[in-house]
Give the backbone structure.
Amino acid sequence: MRLVIALGGNALLKRGEPMTADAQRANVRIAARALAPLALHHEIVITHGNGPQVGLLALQGAAYQEVEAYPLDVLGAQTEGMIGYLIEQELGNLLPPDKPFATILTQIEVDRDDPAFRDPTKPIGPLYEKHEAERLAADKGWSVAPDGDKFRRVVPSPRPKRVFEIRPIRWLLEQGCLVICAGGGGIPTMYDKDGKLRGVEAVIDKDRASGLLARVLDADSFIMLTDADAVYSDWGVPHQRQIRRASPQAMREMSFAAGSMGPKVEAACEFAEVTRNSSGIGSLVDVEAILTGRAGTTVTAEAEGIDLA
């Protein structure tokens, strides 16, 4: 089977942990132990988040004022290489020595007319006092928005349109390679009015980008791993219930948090509708059981309505 597995941010850095290289490696090692058994028997493509890593690089860059801080697309490329290196090494220590790996810097096209560019909503970077946020907005052309009693920079989150490196990714899979790509939603790029490709100050949702990748690769299954063991109906209230299996139509009729589970459910539904294959959402420790429908939430066109645990 060909599997696209999206690692949530908790697989790299758990909430409250220091953003050190050692902490990230320790978490990647845990993820590798869970994924290695699947990699022995299936074609695997791994995607991952990069939010904390991009934020840290941005802060480090801002501290050195001799040159202008690097833009988000360049920081995204940096983190794809850094995180891919950790995943390759930790999985390589568990799999047979002749298993090949490749981390692909993945440019993903967005539409310059995407409505997201008129309404930036994705918060990035540190919190600022109002006066400092307003100064930075004026100096750097940023958009800022309230975040509690502070302010943060917000950037567009356009929809992914095309994966530029899809041909080398396919070729590597055909050669038996485990591929790590589209980290952090991929490097956002678009064609300008002169037809030239350039990077964009934006963040593509990683689950939407991973879903697009899974569809164009004709994956047999698309699995999103997060810090929740499944998707729940009525999340956060006493009568919440785990969704074990559901049709895309039934899931679309429900409401999920826009900043967390919403994009995952959307990506799962679109994959199931387009490919007629199943998608799963759940915890890293349950990845093998999610693949077979014994854990997590399975979204499939073969389901009728919703089965609750």
Remarks:
- DSSP finds nine helices and 17 strands in the chain.
- The chain has a mean pLDDT of 93.
